[in-house]
Design goal:
The protein is α/β, with parallel strands linked by helices. The protein has 16 helices and 17 strands. Strand 2, helix 2 and strand 3 form a beta-alpha-beta unit. Helix 1 packs parallel to helix 11 and helix 14 runs antiparallel to helix 15. The two termini are 67 Å apart.
Length: 524
């Protein structure tokens, strides 16, 4: 079978669904590759590059669609493209099935199989095919670059002979794939970065990337993102008001705002209102990645850049991945190639459209003359993050009572062990000879001291210095104990007892000092 990629007909689209590298991988699956002349030029791939990779270059879209059994493209197909589909063809592309009912009907009428890349389920096995995440990653990165291009200062703070430059403050609204990419880019450029998301489980991800998560003084049980396919869910009106109040508080401080909040098949929620824009400093920048669905910021114009009366730039571009066509094409072509790998389990160049496969079934929106959208939920669901257990903070009186109780419990345990040990030694002494008991008592005391000095001590207290000191002191104590029981005279016993005392002071005093030093570095 032949897999072909046409030239994108959407105005301003620079991406291509097949690269020379992906074509070589597809050929290993048994497919012949075809591409329309000039399809990869805007992404930096010439026809000669494809020819060198063993790809057949054909002139015109009609020849490409007629020749190919499988068509891989980027943008939602237009009516003229859907009109070229037949029952023996498979189309792999972005399709927007939730908002493209007419396209679904045309696909159904043609009898062709249509795989929508945005419908790949967000499960671990399908991450390599997740084209939405690939493109969102690029969009988040490019959003920060566009913001920097329109921002009149450095991102990072600087101290120069000419004066001090404060770092830029960036707020990222929405910490999905695009938001996390924007956070990573912003922090790497040296900006002070804040991030907000309605999903509480992303706070750790945000903070691990060097940004500060914006918390609300509002308690609401949020649905875990894993239960909604990895997307945010609609919040309550009360939560929205608390959210907007927090944004109004931040608006005068931040220099750059990047909004990424989208809920599938819904208009973008308005999160950055006119009064917030009016409160921002002149020269500030808003990059609205939700512009295609109306925008998160009031005043966003799709595919345009505007400047408000108070000097705030609002960028509403919708083609961020296309502005990095070479990188975007490489990632998207890799997603397509992985999808083809699942569709070709035998690597024989023949599609096996297994509707029992979670990934293939989830992404298929039309098959066998039927509309198969929406798909059933995948059999393997994402595991929702467990909510953190909130440990109540104890009062000083409660802490003291807890410490006293723990001390009493430890004391009781130690007294019990000593009593049992003493009883065992006495019992052995009743039947064993005196020579044996001398050595036996020394052995028991050695075990007891070794346990207290080494085994029963917190690992954090075992510094190299402490280890050497305790080893020497322990040897001294053991030697002194043997002298105490040797019967060598009063002076020998006295000196041995003094040695035990000072070595013990050295050991326990060392632990006490080390513990105090460690306490200096504890937040509590």
């Amino acid at each position: 079978m032949k897999i072909g990629t046409p030239l994108e007909v959407e105005a301003g689209e620079n991406r291509v669904a097949m690269t020379p590298d992906s074509a070589r991988q597809l050929q290993k699956l048994g497919y012949d590759c075809v591409i329309e002349a000039g399809a990869g030029l805007k992404a930096g791939f010439s026809d000669a590059d494809y020819t060198a990779a063993g790809v057949e270059v054909v002139e015109g879209a009609d020849a490409l669609w007629t020749t190919s059994d499988i068509i891989a493209k980027v943008r939602i197909p237009q009516d003229v493209e859907l009109g070229r589909l037949t029952a023996d063809k498979t189309l792999i592309t972005f399709f927007n099935p939730g908002g493209n009912e007419a396209g679904l009907e045309q696909a159904k009428a043609s009898g062709a199989s249509v795989i929508a890349m945005e419908m790949v389920p967000r499960i671990s096995r399908a991450q390599k095919m997740d084209a939405l995440s690939s493109m969102a990653n690029i969009a988040g990165y490019r959003a920060v670059i566009e913001a920097g291009n329109n921002f009149g200062r450095f991102f990072t703070g600087q101290i120069t002979a000419a004066g001090k430059v404060p770092p830029a403050k960036v707020l990222v609204v929405g910490a999905g794939v695009a938001g996390l990419a924007a956070i990573g880019t912003s922090t790497s450029l040296g900006a002070i970065t804040y991030a907000f998301d309605v999903r509480p489980e992303v706070a750790e991800q945000v903070e691990s990337m060097g940004a500060e998560f914006v918390y609300l003084d509002f308690e609401e049980e949020q649905q875990d993102g894993a239960a909604t396919g990895g997307y945010a869910a609609v919040s309550s009106p009360e939560f929205r008001e608390a959210q907007l109040a927090k944004f109004r508080e931040l608006a005068p401080e931040v220099d750059i705002v990047i909004t990424t909040a989208l809920i599938p098949n819904r208009p973008a929620p308005k999160l950055w209102t006119e009064d917030m824009i009016a409160a921002m400093k002149p020269g500030s920048v808003i990059v609205d990645l939700a512009a295609e669905k109306g925008g998160n910021a009031e005043g966003t114009v799709m595919d345009e850049k505007i400047v408000t009366e108070n000097g705030v730039t609002i960028i509403g571009y919708t083609d961020f991945p296309s502005r990095m066509a070479a990188q975007a094409s490489t990632l998207y072509a890799t997603n397509i190639r992985h999808m083809m790998t699942d569709l070709t389990p035998e690597k024989d160049g023949q599609i096996n459209h297994d509707m029992e496969d979670d990934v293939i079934r989830g992404a298929t929106v039309a098959h066998g003359g039927e509309i198969t959208f929406p798909p059933p939920p995948p059999k393997v669901a994402a595991i929702a993050a467990k909510p953190k257990e909130v440990v109540p903070e104890l009062t000083p009186e409660e802490k003291r009572a807890q410490e006293v109780a723990e001390f009493k419990a430890q004391t009781k345990q130690q007294v019990t062990l000593l009593a049992v040990g003493a009883a065992v030694i006495l019992g052995v002494g009743l039947v064993a000879p005196a020579s044996f008991m001398q050595h036996f008592i020394v052995f028991v005391l050695s075990v007891f001291i070794g346990f207290q000095v080494i085994w029963n001590v917190s690992h954090s207290l075992h510094t190299p210095l402490m280890a050497v000191t305790n080893a020497i002191s322990s040897i001294i104590i053991l030697g002194a104990l043997t002298q105490i029981g040797s019967g060598g005279g009063f002076l020998v016993v006295l000196l041995a007892a003094i040695s035990v005392f000072f070595a013990g002071v050295n050991i326990f005093g060392g632990f006490l000092v080390t513990r105090r030093m460690l306490a200096m570095f504890q937040k509590s």
